[in-house]
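Two proteins follow. First one:
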Amino acid sequence: MKSTAIRQTLTLVKKDILLELRQKYAFYGILLYIISTVFVINLMIDKPEEKIWNALFWVVQLFVAVNAIAKSFLQESRGRLLYFYSLVHPRNFIVAKLIYNIVLMAIMSLITLVCCIMFLGNPVINFWYFLGVIMLGGISLSLLFTMLAAIAAQANQNAALMAIMGFPIMLPLLMMLSSIAKSSFITVYQPGLPKMFLMLASMDVLIIALSMVLFPFLWKD
């Protein structure tokens, strides 16, 4: 039973990856969005100071997450979802979506970081710490918007609903990620850092738990 669940999950992840490779326009569209957004920021403010650079980076990350992850459920037709409903367990389906979106968001986070460094300069002092933070942030954003996309997909494929529902959650998440990332731009110890990491991890665990509990009920509808 356990091996069957793992096999189903991996098969679904492979399906999403193959679908992404075949529909390259979606990936290139997000890539163009990242490059054009960062380039426009460069034209407006050139090389911003550390605090502004940090804030702009996470704002770009937010919109990248919305654009990249919204299509994970919204591109699935009703007929295709009904077909998957007859083949796989709903928890295996949502786990596969979570894994795929984490991988996708990790790639997009690296691309965003490279673009920001190229166009906006590199004020980061502790690079490897910042790289770890953006990976954690990418995971948190992907988990949040995957769950919201699953809910929005049941509401007539309404992508706007995902952004509206996520607004009260994404604000504290972005503020927390921005505060954690501040240590990358300074050489002194930032008090309260372990507590913020713990809060971030707790939020991720809560989102995963809610996805595992709520998605089977959404799946039935």
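Second one, unrelated to the first:
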Amino acid sequence: MRALGPATAIAFVILLAGDGAEALMRHENDVPAVTGWWLLLHAAVFVLVAPYKVMLYEVIWDVGSPSTPKPGARRRAILNVVALDLLLFLGGAAWLWLWNLHDRLGIPVLLVLGLLVPSWWICIRLTLAGPALALGALGVLPLSLSGAVSATKGRVWEITFAGLLVGAVLLPVLLAIIAATLWLQAAVVRSALMKPALMSPVNILSLVTSIAVQAELYRRMGLPSASHADRAPA
């Protein structure tokens, strides 16, 4: 995050603005309303943050100092990241929509909760899809999307445990922010924007930490290393 300097600051502001806008769209029970505007807001955030995610992949995978990749490579890398984020987000939004409306639609609660199992499995199998799509488009990672999915076979619990470790690292920060939110809303000011203002640091920390965990898992799996020299010249 320090290495990317201004880019990290811009990404933080984007996430903060997105969190603030989402807070204004929430129901009284703090559950987001799955509307067209809500979906459009998240799509916009994904598009704006995608260049930063690509830079994070480059820095954390240590592919060397920037050079000129083949024409259109960075644009393809960014579009690949946006497409993956949107795919995962739409899956989560569909589940949230079912959860909000399961009573009206007559869908059993256990069935809706049961859908979390295949969703978890899909997310596990796509753990390395981000770096494969981003760095693969830049020509610095010799790993295809199918290869990234195949690499996670038989490592479901290892990847799940790594994800839980990320949660454990962020938990003290999250608890401190929750406590600060409750105190500020009770003693200082009650505002819908208070929570997103305090939660945005957790969002950007979880983004960076999750990519760092992906890199560590990649190395532990013994997959082909990224190489700055493999980039094709313009």
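SUMMARY FIELD: The CA atoms of residues 95 and 115 lie 8 Å apart. DSSP finds nine helices and no strands in the chain.
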